[in-house]
Specification:
Pfam families: CbiX. The protein is of the alpha/beta class and 248 residues long. Helices cover 45% and strands 17% of the residues. The strands form two sheets. The protein has a four-stranded parallel β-sheet with strand order 2-1-3-4, sandwiched between helices. The protein is elongated, with a radius of gyration of 19 Å.
């Protein structure tokens, strides 16, 4: 049985997002034993879902596993799934749709690795229970999105002194409010986690436009900033695990 894999991402104009997706698809294809692995975008820039589906269906496959590559189970995921299912009636290829990349311990462990890398780079030797963490997410009107980030924050809270979260846009607490919350806890070291899949405009410019003024205003002792989630092997593992949940 020949299987294909299609990742549906939100979309970004930044070339780094496409480059990261190409790497992830290459690794997922190899690790999952797929005939091919492709990606497409829900919005912003091509290849759109229509482009991605048509390309996949030109291949000689029996099934297509479709992965909503989103950190939050919100409206964007629903829109992506609704859009892709429209193509099922026009083909004999069996469509299998996975859960998004949310509410999973693999993400928690990935964030832990990002935190550890930032601490090592900053040459911080304090134990985890002396470290404070602030997770910055995108923000969404969908209540499930907040539930998803809280899952990560609550799990991290088992290891670190304090773990808070805030959002870049749409909902509160915003970044300035998040830094203010952390300041009240008087952390010896604060690690700020960029909880974003890609190095898009949000990571490259938008977060820092709010974060830098907030840090200058509240003047914490030592602040370290992690990398975004990116092309970590754990993301590939999570994609494969989500795929296997529906394939078996």
């Amino acid at each position: 049985m020949k299987r294909g894999l299609l990742l549906i991402d939100r979309g970004s104009k930044e070339r780094e997002a496409s480059e990261e997706l190409e790497i992830i698809c290459k690794e997922a294809k190899k690790k999952g034993g797929y005939a091919f692995a492709e990606y497409c975008f829900l919005e912003v820039t091509p290849p759109y879902i229509d482009d991605g589906i048509k390309k996949c269906l030109k291949s000689d496959i029996d099934s297509l596993t479709i992965v909503p590559y989103f950190l939050y189970p919100g409206k964007k995921v629903k829109a992506a799934v609704t859009e892709v299912i429209k193509y099922q009636s026009a083909t004999n290829v069996k469509f299998l749709v996975t859960k998004p990349m949310s509410m999973h311990m693999t993400l928690v462990n990935l964030v832990r690795n990002r935190i550890k890398s930032a601490l090592d780079k900053g040459k911080v030797l304090l134990p985890d229970n002396k470290i404070d963490v602030l997770v910055i997410g995108h923000g969404s009107k969908d209540p499930n999105a907040k539930m998803s980030i809280k899952y990560v924050v609550d799990e991290l809270g088992r290891s670190y002194r304090n773990v808070d979260y805030c959002f870049l846009e749409i909902e509160e607490p915003n970044i300035e409010q998040g830094i203010q919350m952390c300041k009240k806890r008087d952390p010896e070291v604060l690690v700020v986690v960029f909880y974003f899949l890609h190095e898009g405009a949000h990571v490259k410019t938008d977060i820092n436009a709010d974060l830098k003024p907030a840090l200058e205003k509240h003047k914490l002792n030592q602040v370290l900033i992690t990398q975004h989630l990116g092309t970590d092997q754990k993301m590939v593992d999570l994609i494969i695990e989500r795929a296997q949940e529906v394939e078996t």
